[in-house]
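Researcher: Here's my situation. A collaborator sent me these components and asked whether they could plausibly form a single complex. I don't have experimental data yet, so a predicted model of the whole assembly would be a useful starting point for our discussion.
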Amino acid sequence: MSDSTPTTAESRKLAQEARDRVRFEEEALELSDQVYRVARRMVGSREEAEDLVQQTYERAFRSWRQFTPGTNLRAWLLRILTNLNIDRGRRVQRTPQTTTLDGELGDYFLYNKLESTAPEQNPDEDRVLERLSQDTIVDALADVPHDFRDVIVLVDIGEFSYADAAQILDIPIGTVMSRLHRGRRILKKNLADKAVAP
Amino acid sequence: MIDDPCDKCEEMMQPYLDGVLSADEVAEAERHLEACSWCAKRYHFEERLRHFVRVAVSEPMPAELKAKLAALRTPLQ
């Protein structure tokens, strides 16, 4: 046998690696819709989101051996995406931005505000919800400062657990919870400001 | 210390909907919600709002991007 001919054991190993790689790539591609959905709301434009998702998959396919099979692939892909987003300099400011809320608005604030300005007495929840259009919601979310928005996007849109969101963003779980709490209130304040007039 | 049961219920709404309350806290919130239609309405609204937000901001991935990603796959030997 010449030196350049792989041994049977090596061939088997290479064949197994090729199969693992194919499976990894298939599984990652199956998650691409969900990855895009999160990316689209983390960055400002569709073009940026598309670039970011493409770079994420390029990097994921290059470094697929670093993924531990059996762990959360979706969270692993989003971690790459988040790091790329930071690397690309979109995050000039790494400390959480501050935003002013008028006093401490409670969690019932949006409903109370919409109900109090409704033309009818005691409207049902669906009628109140009708005051929020799709565009209103997209704009209201885009106006939430990014540190808070990222957490909302991961937990409320991407349906990640607090623990996964903490891992993806590389922040403590307590920070995820506090940013989520505040972020949802900012979102509701924006929604109340942009709601369709009754 | 929160004395007003509706204020307490308001504080519990987000963790309740996130499913992170203890069994005792869930029971406490649900006891109040059964008796208080004012809070129940607001919980229901919040649940609908979360769903509505998720649907409203979800944009399907462009088909061209999907094709580009598929093209990144390692060619089979």
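Model: Some features of this prediction you could bring to your collaborator: Chain B touches chain A at residues 7, 10-11, 13-14, 18, 20, 41-42, 44-46, 48-50, 52-54, 56-62, 65-66, 68-70, 72-74, 76-77 (CB under 8 Å). Chain B has a mean pLDDT of 91.
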